[in-house]
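Components:
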Amino acid sequence: MVGLYCDFLAQHEQSTANMLGAILKQLANRGGIPEHIKEAFQEAKKEFGGRGLRVPDMVEILKKSTASLPRVFICIDALDECTAKHRRDLLESLREILRMSPNLRIFLTGRSHIDDEIAKSFGKTLRIPLSPAHADIKRYLEMRLGGDTDPYAMGDELRADIMRIIPEKISDM
Amino acid sequence: MSSGYQQAGGYANSFNNNSFNNIVNFNTEIGDEGRQILQWLSPLEPHQRHQGVRIDRLDSVGNWVLETSEFRKWHDAEDGSVEPVLFCYGNPGVGKTYVRYEASCLEEGNAWITNHL
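Structure:
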């Protein structure tokens, strides 16, 4: 299982190469750094200033790395938060890796407007619409009310209203 | 399998802590060249964010997603018969990050078992 969080505030450093690199880094970290990665590193070091890996190199290395494991799960959060170009290249790279690695599963989260892009890269996907679950909201409110430093200032009626109205409002999101 | 995983086995009670400690332990084991290679692969450090989400979230929030038939189907498939990509979508603030966290913890447990057997 390897994961990645995208963030509006870090769009600049979240290039496709850096994102694929972060996936690779976690895979490499799991079972010791594979020889093929060490070799690529030594090759790159020979060049002036030592260059970074390019996206096609990363895709090739990721294919090898995922193929050597029984199952690999890649989770990427907030895919809509990276730039459109980086996202397109990332999705295309993942599609390319998937083609060679039937043992790879990919879990993505994001806002629904990137649905078309995902369909374009992967064709049919499994989809789950998310909205806050009533039970989750209630448990959160109970936790917050339980931590109230001045519980006597709040009457039972207000407490009951909070527990009833907030979950109702949030469910409309 | 690898020495890293065998070492992780000692902390098998908690996958959440385990996944983080595992990374830390490994970084000290892989030596200078290993650390250089990891840095060269990417400057991003996703496990740090993962740790932040772990601390912020309320236990088992988002669990319901793991019970859906879509998730089970996606997760349990061993071959190419099931779509390999699962997309969870929603409006800002509905808790996508926390669901993704929840899913990854489950995976962490399974990945660990898979690698161990």
